[in-house]
Design a protein that fits this description.
The protein is of the alpha/beta class. The chain is built from six helices and seven strands. Strands 1, 2, 3, 4, 5, 6 and 7 form a seven-stranded mixed β-sheet that branches. The structure holds guanosine-5'-triphosphate and magnesium ion. Pfam families: Arf.
Length: 216
């Protein structure tokens, strides 16, 4: 009887928990985004100190009305990217953060002869392709964030959509059909962050049959 009551109590009081993986090149703004999400949803103070490059991982859980989001922020430096794969099989959505000021001004040109500087667009493209072509990320929702929108030298979101995301999806390593969206944010100022979290919330729920939550 005790065990039955305990189970009933657990199911009545528990919520679904989904894991979200923040990926992107070094300096994209992942750790800043995690801090901002924590301060918006958990009422923690906004970080006073600047971030340092992440070696290893940061994790935080935010409580929404109907679920917990457990958010993993991992280091984006080249040497650390091989560790990302160990998170793929347990994550319910991937948020790929792009530094919108560091992808160059040749988004439509394909990098051919005579093309202008391309910034880190090509590195971003190869990295995103590698994530999406991994079998464990198949059909997992993908949110691409065009970050640093507060800066004047940031490219327009549509250019990241066309020049990066569409190219990856149309390529051979695009990873098949999945829910995806590109949204502008400023992780530093918090602009667009609630909209990004809301998109993730709705998409992990939608994909629940594909990859189920953990009950907490
Ligand atoms: N202007 C502006 N700067 C930002 C924004 N987001 C992050 N930054 C800055 O970009 C730099 C890198 O931010 P991080 O959050 O540490 O980047 P990261 O993706 O975690 O980098 P790694 O840990 O090396 O993978 C820091 O100086 C941040 O203050 C933003 O929205 N606007
Ligand atoms: Mg970091």
């Amino acid at each position: 009887m005790y065990h039955l009551a305990k189970s009933v109590y657990f199911w009545a009081t528990s919520k679904e928990e989904y894991s979200i993986l923040l990926l992107g090149l070094d300096n994209a703004g992942k750790t800043t985004l995690l801090s901002t999400i924590k301060s918006l949803y958990n009422d923690t103070p906004a970080p006073a100190k600047p971030t340092v490059p992440t070696v290893g991982q940061n994790v935080a859980t935010v409580s929404l009305d109907d679920m917990y989001l457990k958010i993993w922020d991992v280091g984006g430096q080249h040497a650390l990217r091989s560790m990302w794969t160990s998170y793929y099989s347990v994550c319910h959505a991937i948020v790929f953060v792009v530094d919108g000021c560091d992808i160059g001004d040749d988004l439509g040109g394909g990098g051919g002869e005579g093309a202008g500087p391309v910034g880190r667009l090509e590195e971003c493209r190869r990295t995103l392709e590698s994530v999406l072509s991994h079998p464990s990320t198949a059909s997992i929702p993908l949110l691409v964030l065009a970050n640093k929108q507060d800066r004047e030298d940031c490219v327009e979101t549509v250019r990241i959509k066309e020049g990066l995301v569409r190219r990856v999806f149309e390529g051979e390593r695009g990873g098949g059909v999945r829910d995806s969206r590109v949204l502008p944010v400023s992780a530093l100022k918090g602009e667009g962050v609630r909209e990004a979290v809301e998109w993730v919330r709705s998409r992990v729920r939608w994909n629940k049959e594909g990859r189920g939550p953990v009950m907490r």
